[in-house]
Design brief:
- This protein is an all-alpha fold.
- The chain has a domain at 30-96.
- It has helices at residues 2-20, 26-62, 64-75, 90-96.
- α2 crosses α3 (64-75).
- The longest helix is centred in the middle third of the chain and has 37 residues, at 26-62.
- The N and C termini lie far apart (90 Å).
């Protein structure tokens, strides 16, 4: 009878060990759920960025307005006859001096 009790105790400890510490344990499942949530957030951010880039590509392909806006913003280009005004922040100017 003692052998049976000892065997059952060992089996119980073995199953509990795997539940708490081994592969597929509660701690590992919790960690994996946390990683999954973080990865989903990253995927959502990348999806938003991809959609924005797709809109920008479509805008550049469809007409000259997108190209003109991109050139104005990125390269500082102006049309003939236009006057460019640049407003500086006084605090930024003080920092540069």
């Amino acid at each position: 009878m003692k052998w049976l009790l000892a065997l059952l105790s060992v089996m119980l400890i073995a199953t509990q060990f795997r539940l708490w510490v081994g592969e597929g344990s509660l701690a590992e499942v919790t960690r994996l759920k946390r990683e999954l949530a973080e990865q989903r957030k990253k995927n959502a951010a990348l999806l938003r960025e991809n959609r924005q880039l797709l809109r920008e590509v479509r805008s550049l392909k469809e007409g000259t307005d997108g190209v003109e806006a991109k050139a104005r913003y990125d390269l500082g280009l102006i049309k003939e006859g236009e006057t460019l005004f640049i407003f500086l922040d006084p605090e930024e100017v003080k920092k540069r001096d």
